[in-house]
Design goal:
215 residues; alpha/beta; 8-stranded mixed beta sheet; 42% helix; globular
């Protein structure tokens, strides 16, 4: 049992600091190299210019879920071009957290399931709605359609803007004072939408603060 505890501690450490390994072990999601680069990145500013059907919504949902699960009292704000898109990304995060919780449940007739660490170590979902969920460790994931009013009042530790090329410049500008007050990771991800708007400007700009990922 002591050997298992040491192995469990090590696996839990790897899962905490390498989200793509957590996704593979717990969610059976095998990320391709570019997806893994995004999921594991700790860069403050990330911009992803990708094709359709690459899996950006799923990978963003996994990244949000990992943050909420492993960093207590974190607040992940997901902003999407439409309420429908916001709901889809929220559902991906909920899927990841629900599957992780199921993975670590005791198995009838056994002392414990063959897992990486104690099932009691993982927070559970305690509240959920179409566009938000809260975990027992105090973390929250809030998804919202893109409007200046909808993002006010939050103090996020991570912001993910989905289909950012369809989001207004005014909304993007409203995120800046929020980050100034509470520094956090910002992810802009989108398929292209012409040579206009803040997404295009940040993508072609020379600001070295951005980690640029092209698919």
């Amino acid at each position: 049992m002591e050997v298992r505890s040491e192995a469990a501690w090590l696996r839990g450490y790897v899962h905490r600091w390498c989200p793509s390994v957590w996704a593979a072990d717990v969610l059976s999601f095998i990320a391709d190299p570019v997806q893994a680069k995004f999921i594991d990145s700790e860069a403050t500013d990330i911009i992803i210019n990708c094709t359709r059907q690459w899996g950006k919504t799923t990978t963003a949902g996994i990244k949000a879920a990992h943050k909420a699960r492993f960093v207590k009292e974190s607040e992940v704000l997901v902003v999407s071009a439409t309420q429908r898109q916001a709901g889809i990304l929220e559902a991906k995060a909920q899927w990841a957290l629900t599957k992780a919780a199921q993975k670590f449940q005791p198995v009838m007739g056994k002392e414990y399931e063959v897992v990486e660490y104690d099932p009691d170590d993982g927070p559970q979902i305690v509240r959920r709605s179409v566009l938000s969920l809260e975990l027992s460790n105090g973390s929250r994931i809030i998804s919202t359609p893109a409007s200046e009013d909808s993002i006010r009042g939050y103090s996020p530790s991570m912001i993910i803007v989905d289909e950012d090329s369809r989001v207004s410049d005014a909304l993007y500008d409203a995120l800046r004072p929020m980050r100034a007050a509470h520094p956090c990771q910002l992810v802009l991800q989108s398929t292209p939408n012409g040579k206009r708007g803040h997404f295009y400007r940040e993508w072609i700009g020379d600001d070295s603060a951005w980690t640029r990922i092209k698919v």
